[in-house]
Amino acid sequence: MKGPTMQGNILTPDGWIRGRIVIEDGTTTIAAIEGDAADPASNNDDYILPGFIDLHVHGGAGRDMMEGGDAPHVIARLHARHGTTSLLATTMTAPLDDIDRALAAIGTACEQRGKDEARILGVHLEGPYINSGKLGAQPPFAREATMAEVERFNAQAPMRLITVAPEIDGHLSLVRQLADAGIRVQIGHTNGNYDDGVRALEHGAAGFTHLFNAMPGLHHRDPGMVGAALAHAQYAEIIPDLLHVHPGAIRTALRCIPHLYCVTDSTAAAGMPDGQYMLGRQVVHKCMGGVRLADGTLAGSTLTMDQALRNLVSIGLDLADAARRVSTNAADYLGETRRGRIAPGCFADLVVLDRDLNLKTVYIEGEQCDLADA
């Protein structure tokens, strides 16, 4: 029995098709795509894109992942209303008890997706294995990593991605162990130099956490960690809120890093009015479109993935390329072959946008999401 169908300009791995997507009744996957190749500029139909995938989510709707309890579910609902169909719940540098509390809640949320919630694919452990000299908005609880501790964390919730400062003693060997265990390792919150970055990539690191932010920048006689990323990386995440990174720097990264993908680094302030919120143990303030500590340091963002897509288009990317940067590339990075693309057999994770790129409909694993309060 045929279930819901969506009609419009469909972005498939082979290009645009004007037609419809068929989902079999009661299933989570795409059954068929019917239609013909077409240029979306030749008609006024809606756009149908792969659901957005965000690998760096701290919070939203006034809630923070480090709270534990039902926070992951509330956050996943907020981001689903903005087109995110799957995400990684992202932790902060914190005492072990805080991390354990967060992971217990995230692990439960990974096992059972609630109604109108984005699928939580696992954890992005952004701390505590970072450099205390590049905390950014992270609290001062950085420490050296051990594989035994990672394994303990992984028993509570699936570790899909871990941010590591590779210059810390012992971390290079850990990078290799993590990569061998199938966990993606990103370089971030680091004071390492160009050579540290290259060695980390050689040891199995796969990407960079919020490229340009919380790492030494590029200088022509000291290329820094940014130089290592631009010269060697296949993947890196970037925050396209046009506040963390200048559009010119985003375009530079796009030319250098083939599979650059976008994240929100969103905090509890996402989807909320200006005011005071928590980011782990830190008090942060939302004002003038950004989130900052009391000293003015940027502390995550209020970005949602639908706005990320619009921002990419506003700086000159065509829609198909922008869509890959907020979906397909992140799926490929994690090895999620049934997400981030519209093809038969893939999860029916879909967003429907009008001609002005405003969100109209979201499907998560074949279920239409309620967009109320979006």
Spans with pLDDT under 50 lasting ≥5 residues? none
Q: At the fourth CATH level, what is the homologous superfamily of the largest domain?
A: Metal-dependent hydrolases
What is the first-to-last residue Cα distance?
31 Å
Total number of domains: 2
Helices and strands, in order, run as EEEEEEEHEHEHEHEHEHEHEEEEHHEEE
How does CATH name the architecture of the largest domain? Alpha-Beta Barrel
CATH topology name of the largest domain, in short, is TIM Barrel
What is the number of beta strands?
Answer: 20
Q: Mean of the pLDDT scores? A: 96
The major β-sheet equals:
7 strands, mixed
Share of β-strand residues: 25-35%
CATH top level label of the largest domain? Alpha Beta
Rg from Cα: 20 Å
Assembly type of the shown chains? single chain
Treating each run of at least 4 consecutive H or I residues as one helix, how many helices? 9
Cofactor: a divalent metal cation
Domain Amidohydrolase-related: 47-368
Keywords: Carbohydrate metabolism, Hydrolase, Metal-binding
Binding site for substrate: 137, 213-214, 221, 244, 298-300
Write up this protein.
There is one protein chain. By secondary structure, this protein is of the alpha/beta class. It has 2 domains: 2-48 and 343-368, Urease, subunit C, domain 1 (Roll), CATH 2.30.40; 51-334, TIM Barrel (Alpha-Beta Barrel). The protein has helices at 71-80, 96-111, 147-156, 171-180, 194-202, 224-232, 247-256, 305-314, 319-334; strands at 2-12, 15-24, 30-37, 47-50, 52-57, 59-60, 63-64, 84-90, 119-125, 159-164, 184-187, 207-208, 237-238, 261-262, 275-279, 282-287, 290-292, 350-353, 359-364, 367-368. The strands form 5 sheets. The chain has a 7-stranded mixed sheet with strand order 3-2-1-4-18-19-20, with helices on one face. A hairpin with a 2-residue loop joins β19 (359-364) and β20 (367-368). The mean pLDDT is 96.
